[in-house]
Amino acid sequence: MSIFFEKMTQAFADEKIDPIANKKIPIQYCCHNYEDFSEKITQILSKYKNNKVFILHDGKNKKSDKDSNTNILEKISKILANTFSVIEKNLATESNSNCDEIHASEYFLKKTTDLILNETDCEIYIALGSGTITDLLKHSLFLNKPNALFISIPTAMTVTAFSSSFSVVDISGAKRTRQSKDIYATFWLTPLLQAAPMELSRAGYGDLLARFVAYGDWYLGFKLGISEKYDELAFRLMEVFAEPLKQVASEFGQKELSTRAVEISAAALAMAGIAMSLSGETTPLSGYEHVISHALDFLRLSSDRPLVLHGEQVALASLTSAMSFEWLLEIENFDLKKFRSMNEKDTNQIINHFFSAAPFFGKDEDKFSESERKKIDINLSAKLHSAKEIFISDYLKKSQKWDIAKERFTDFIHEWPEIKAHLKKLTLSSHSMQALLEQAQLPIFPEATTPNTTALEYRWAIRFAPFIRSRFCLADFIFWIGEDCCIAAAT
């Protein structure tokens, strides 16, 4: 067992959490070789009478280790085939899609569901691949086969999905977090993770940087009375990885990760997913930075453009969040006359305004003639209707809470000095955040993402952030007090 996974075990002990008894905590295996993996997974699966094992993957060729050309699917299937009957399904082939087109949408969720329902007597399911494959299988099992055994095997350290009981699903372009099936075990295979493309590992590191700002959103929402609950369990659980993560930032700017860097990143991602599951929501590691990322995804999904790696966007938006918190912490007095409040009609109007000005096509916006753009807008209008209804409904949920919170804002003002002091402890300075991004070679401006994001897209996403989801984030407060989110982010 890796020393960093041992830190996880110790953190649970410190919090008096029994990881064996708690179903929200998947068993975590850090395997340094495939012999170790074979022994551990066989031990788990041999308890089941039915020897069928279903593996879902995306069809992309992935090396099992950096010094071999053996495909990981072949490697895993061969190991399991010694004892079990392996059913492997290529989601790209089964959905007649390119593997790069697969994302956690309603369409691919249905395709995944069709595949698992065809296996009526299968009890064991494995997601072998990305966070997308994991989310799709995890949520489909939750809805259709809740008693099945579910195991995740990440092929790259990209997101927190591999150990959490939540999935993020695209509904009409609007990404929504959904409760999903608890994971029984996650296998982190060091040789496999070292062989993953560095841009994927780097993106996973970027996703982890949300840990240094997202708690500020939750705490601020709670002090305002928008969020109903707040606790710092997840903050404490993640604290054991704070310094190690900072120490390995520069390795993500290199061509290859050391075993130590892999173990730190894998353990931190595992703990992040578990911490969210234990909290009962993704709030501890998903704040303003994820909202900006979801807004950028909405632009691309609406125009059928390739998505930027999630972690790249989250890293860039974490810097924006850090800058915005610093701007907020400079405020001594609030101008109550500037405060905003909107009813359903107002919300509908402002979202219509945002949609009409949305740079759905990024750098290609200027390529369309006026007549072409009108035709595009007509086609988009029908597609965007469902998303607009979701945005309006979700915004009004928190807006109504704000209307109540405004009535007791004097209490908030009285506590403001103490609130500021605690926010400073919960969030990383923009200077420190930028240093981590630069060391890891993560983007510090929109045009540096892959594919490129235009400054116009990024500004739109920042300003649209209050309308992306029902849960509070810093953007909501900036908007409600009558300020411009882009100005706050430009400090």
Detail the poorly predicted runs: none
From the helix content, strand content and strand pairing, which structural class follows?
A: alpha/beta
Order of helices and strands: HEHEHEHHEHEEEEHHHHHHHHHHHHHHH
Number of strands: 8
- Euclidean distance between termini CA atoms: 44 Å
Give the helix tally: 21
Q: Residue-averaged pLDDT, rounded?
A: 95
Shape: globular
* Number of domain modules: 2
Keywords: Cytoplasm, Lipid biosynthesis, Lipid metabolism, Metal-binding, NAD, NADP, Oxidoreductase, Phospholipid biosynthesis, Phospholipid metabolism
Pfam families: Fe-ADH_2
Organism: Fluviispira sanaruensis
InterPro entries: G1PDH (IPR032837), Glycerol_DH (IPR016205)
Describe the structure.
With 491 residues, the protein is an alpha/beta fold. The chain has two domains: 3-196, Rossmann fold (3-Layer(aba) Sandwich), CATH 3.40.50.1970; 285-488, no CATH class. It has helices at 3-14, 34-45, 72-81, 91-94, 106-117, 131-144, 190-195, 198-208, 214-224, 233-239, 242-247, 259-279, 288-302, 310-329, 344-356, 370-407, 409-426, 430-440, 455-464, 474-480, 485-488; strands at 27-31, 52-57, 85-90, 124-129, 149-154, 166-171, 174-179, 185-189. Strands 1-8-5-4-2-3 form a six-stranded parallel β-sheet, with helices on both faces. Helix 9 (214-224) runs antiparallel to helix 17 (409-426), helix 13 packs across helix 14 and helix 13 (288-302) crosses helix 19 (455-464). It is globular, with a radius of gyration of 22 Å. The model has no long low-confidence stretch (mean pLDDT 95). This is 3-dehydroquinate synthase domain-containing protein. Keywords: Cytoplasm, Lipid biosynthesis, Lipid metabolism, Metal-binding, NAD, NADP, Oxidoreductase, Phospholipid biosynthesis, Phospholipid metabolism.
